[in-house]
Write a structure and sequence with these properties.
Layout: E1 15-20, E2 25-28, E3 33-34, E4 38-41, E5 44-47, E6 51-56, E7 61-66, E8 79-87, E9 91-99, E10 112-116, E11 137-144, E12 149-151, E13 158-161, E14 172-174, E15 177-179, E16 186-187
Parallel strand pairs: 3-7
Antiparallel strand pairs: 1-6, 2-5, 4-5, 6-7, 8-9, 8-11, 9-10, 11-12, 11-13, 14-15, 15-16
Bound molecules: zinc ion (ZN).
The site of zinc ion has 7 residues, from loops.
């Protein structure tokens, strides 16, 4: 998003159809004012929602427009993406964002799905806090559309983007653990093989 030379004044860039996730850097506060769907921290502007980056080149405002259209219907076997909104002793709560294949149609409203401790991975899970972090972006398969149970046992499923529990910055994969680029602490997750590769 941030190019070294800054944004050329002659170049019209009203809107760019790039899908971003919460926590993605969309600009720097030296160049832009933070618009809707974004927040500013330590000079960087981050997306707070799933959507497309929108910038107003005249007012120099950058933000994120939510994805919207008719809400898709969730079916068994659908691959879904969402944000971890709570971690209980036996279940992880996920705020669903969208379904794979319908990325341009955000799931309307607050649809809460859940990953039960028995559906996280094939091996034994002693503590869900070792597998997921608050606000992590996860990918999983819908087991039951009625109860919105999600399964993440497949190697490609699990956490695709995690945030340091202290600094809240995006963590970088180092083999089997994740490392924070700010404080260098390492954390564990049920890491998807698609970790850090973007949306799909
Ligand atoms: Zn950190």
């Amino acid at each position: 998003m941030v190019d070294g030379e800054g944004v050329a004044a002659t170049e019209p860039k009203a809107e760019r159809a790039k899908t971003v996730l919460p926590g993605d850097i969309i600009g720097i506060s030296e160049e832009y004012t933070t618009g809707e769907g974004a927040f500013d921290e330590k000079g960087n502007i981050y997306a707070t929602i799933v959507g497309t980056v929108v910038e107003d080149p005249k007012k120099r405002v950058i933000g994120v427009k939510p994805l919207c259209d008719a809400p898709p219907v969730i079916k068994r076997g659908d691959i879904v993406y969402g944000t971890v909104s709570g971690i209980k002793s036996s279940v992880v709560l996920v705020d669903l964002a969208f379904i794979e294949g319908s990325e341009n149609r955000e799931i309307a409203g607050d649809i809460m799905a859940a990953i039960h401790v028995s559906n996280v991975k094939k091996s034994y899970v002693s503590d869900l806090k070792h597998e997921f972090g608050y606000q992590d972006i996860i990918k999983g398969r819908i087991l039951d559309p009625a109860t919105l149970r999600i399964d993440t046992t497949h190697p490609r499923h699990g956490v695709i983007k995690a945030f340091c529990s202290k600094c809240k910055v995006g963590m970088i994969r180092k083999n089997k653990v994740l490392e924070c680029p700010e404080c260098e602490r390492t954390e564990t997750r049920k890491i998807s093989s698609d970790y850090g590769k973007g949306l799909v």
